[in-house]
Amino acid sequence: MNEYYIPKNKKEITRESIIGLGENSFKKNYYSELQTKLLDLERVNSRSKALIATIPDILLIGDDNGRISPYGSSINNDSTITLEIMRNQTIMDDLKQVIEQVVKRRVLSAYYFTLSLSDQLHYFEVRIQISEFDEVLIMIRDMTERVTLENQLRDMAEKDALTHISNRRFFEVALEEIDHQAINNLIIVLIDIDGLKFVNDTLGHLVGDQVIISTSRFIKHCFQRFGIVSRVGGDEFGIIIRNQLPETVEMALEDLKIALNAFNEAGTAPFKISLSYGYAYHASGCVNTDFLFQEADDNMYQNKLLKESSVRNSLVKTLMKALEVKDYVTEGHTNRMHALSTLIGHQLHLHQNIMDRIQLLTKFHDIGKVGIPDSILKKPAELNPDEWNVMKTHCTIGERIANESSELREISHLILKHHEKWNGTGYPLGLSGKDIPIECRILSIVDSFDAMTNDRPYRSALSVTTAINEIMSCSGTQYDPELVEIFTQVIDRYLQER
């Protein structure tokens, strides 16, 4: 009986014998469906390994005892980062706490952490899930690129591109959030740059941008600790301050004045900054932000009107000083032109008011050059056509500057026309003959003579004889022939007196 149950030819238990393949199978061809299932299982297993190998995420396996280890070959995806994470005790302790919750609740959980790698902060997202066999799968994804992109997009939507502080949209959203809310001690401050359009028209928009950037830094330094600082217009800034009294604003404005005075007195920039400001205070109760903003705006413009004229004159004086520093034309140049033009004027018996205008013109005719880039103004070679077109704009720039100054307004039209030629080939208006003011016709001769007889960045000085002959050769084309004749009569006396 026992022999009946003892196999005489015991067969080795193998995969083939189990699923019914070959002569050694237990039950030949009876379990073809088992063979199919096993092949499917192997295919799924192979596919899973391939998927894990291609996943860029870090995969870890944990259990309810708190043990965490790399899952299969996933450590090869980025072993350095994996090791850094597993060596960080704070991160691992946090992961174990989350795993405990996942094991207890048996639901998918997420966790986020940051880690400094190679002096760069990385952002990671962790997803933790438990299987039916109580294995805890931990998937860690590096979200640095995504977070960086999201921050960039948020900055584009909420930050001003030039100053990198909050923009008008962010400012208005912040106001909408508190509108018609019961709020105590709310202050809106508005600050405006005085004369920015004037700077843009004379020195150019690149310098105007520097004014805006510098102003934003001063305002941010003085106000950011109290509230939200935003650029709400081309030359206007707004600040929303909560839980502060007006005394705080007055203190911050005083700090701002001190900082601006130090900057302006240093004279390191070709411009000075002047600001107008106003603020409105809401003590308590339901706030109407539109009304509060309008009150602050009215107070700011009242402050601006009180000093508008003095600010413009101050800006002109700043540009005059900038011309002395920036231009190759020295004080000696203007003195020499004044002396020679005075001799010509006296020879012509000109009235004193004309002589006074000539004196101002010799000093300030090139003030528009403050708006010309140094790369053109001081180029040690002849200008190309494009550069020459830029250089010629100094006449119109100079006119704008002079019109803003009570001292120079009377000669603004002369500054505009001081490069016109007798035969009409000058600029910017193409005037000819006696349509050109006499002050400009005299300046044309004395300026040319002094320029030719002194060194310039692009050439050495010519001899006096050569310069006189050059002016005489251009009589009737570039210069008024009658004034050239007067010039030749007084030049010897001028040279002797010099």
Automatic annotation (TrEMBL):
Residues 308-498 form the HD-GYP domain. It comes from the Bacteria. Residues 184-320 form the GGDEF domain. Signal peptide: none annotated. InterPro entries: Cyclic_di-GMP/3'3'-cGAMP_PDE, GGDEF_dom, HD/PDEase_dom, HD_GYP_dom, Nucleotide_cyclase, Rev_trsase/Diguanyl_cyclase. PANTHER family: CYCLIC DI-GMP PHOSPHODIESTERASE TM_0186, CYCLIC DI-GMP PHOSPHODIESTERASE TM_0186-RELATED. This is Diguanylate cyclase.
